[in-house]
Amino acid sequence: MADFRRMKWRPKGSSNSIARKLVVPRVSMIVAMDTEGEVFLSLVQANSNAKIMEIFIRQLVLKLDARDANWRNTSVWMMDNPT
Question: Would you say the pTM of this structure is higher than 0.85?
Answer without folding.
Answer: no
